[in-house]
Here is the input.
Amino acid sequence: MELFETQFGAIRHFLSREKNTEAVKTLRKAVRPWPAGLGRNLILSQDTAVELGNPKGASGSFLLWSERTTDVQDGRIRLVGPDLPESAGRSLPFGKVVMIAGCGFTADNTYPRYREMEGLRYAMDLKGYMMRAVSQYQREWSRVSRDALDAGFSFSVLGGAIIDQYRRLEYITAVEILFVTDSCEKVSALQAIGDQAGRIIGAMNKMSVEMSFDCDSCEYVDVCGDVADLRSMRKTIRKTAEVHG
Amino acid sequence: MDKPNTNDPVVIAVCGKGGVGKTSISAVMTKVLSGSGGAKVLAIDADPAVGLAGALGFSAKRTVDHIRSELIERIKNNAGEDRREMIARMDYELLEAMEERRNLAFLAIGRPEREGCYCQVNHFLKEIIASVVGSFDYVIIDGEAGIEQVNRRVMETVTHLVLVSDASAKGIRVVETIREVAREAVGYEQCGLILNRIRDRAEKERLNVPDSQMLLGWIPEDDTVRGYDITGRNFLEIPDCAMVREVRACLDRLGVLREPA
Here is the structure.
């Protein structure tokens, strides 16, 4: 199933524009595993070295998946903007896109798989890294402690931990991450792509949770009009609902 | 009394009859503990009047109850949130509602629970507050007057209960009732009594304090504190007056000071 062809294309376009200005850095995934936070993961502002995606600034975080392996290069971490070690004492706008290649996505399993993949981000437990997220707003707010920064925490470490986390799911074959910290404008541009992805997720959420098939009154009718696989998912869910009365 | 394990948060709830000075004592405790070797302190205002916010110079624009009410609205409007998303959203917004100043953080609970049960929401909220509390060295809760209304969302995490009474017989009766009820309802480790606004030692000796109460100390009426109260000044800036010294001594007797008084 291909739900996010347009958004993968938009990310490619975003990156090609940035490449022209040589702003895109490719980071090497950290090899050494980072220790866990073991519950005490609240970082107060006085202990914060870098803040990412503060609610007062720009923040965007979303997930895209595809069955086409050409869309995702496994293990690649790209960054547009400054890395953490060079940002001590700053609050940066924050964009994060997790791009996933997987296999065996069907109309029946796509929604539960989305839930599983989305849920993984809340399970992230890295010492000196505090993350708070809300999927409805597609926002992520995080802090990196001074101690963690001194110990070498960077986007290589964070990206590596995210990749390892997703790669544990058997249907995922490749994971690539894009971080954007450059400016509010660039994060907002990324967030506009995230908003489109969020509408597709919203439509999927509605048809799966509410079992509502009244297209005339549905606020997602335009999304289903654009995404063929969303329509086929809707057909399958409708058929199943009719069979079960 | 054993000194606390440095990894476990000390969660102190300050309770008593209305008007006995719980908020001033909570504010001074916050000052003493947040000045104690850079310890991380969370002050929770569980009184619907939100007096502790003003005493510590915080705004309390957004409260835990706002978060709860908004979430209930979303559930009523059938926003289709699942359990994990609901927890994540509350967690995010709780942190957004938390105000910070150096090693001190502040959270206002707001009005007591209103209509409807929404057990799931309240349960999540309790879980999230408990997880936040675990990240601090000290948590001070300025409780509501009386025990029946003591906020159920935060009281389960209390390790030390501090009862406050003035010289009135009613004040002392109330703290005795609170102690008895709390023994069942709150799994605290220590409980002690502070007598506040006592004229002099002779008055303190005349008071009929039940033997069951562990007296932590008595605080005389203090002009400095009265002045801060009247003018609404920030208690974190209060100089080292009699009340500050006595509250520090009470905390030491309670066994929660990591540095000697």
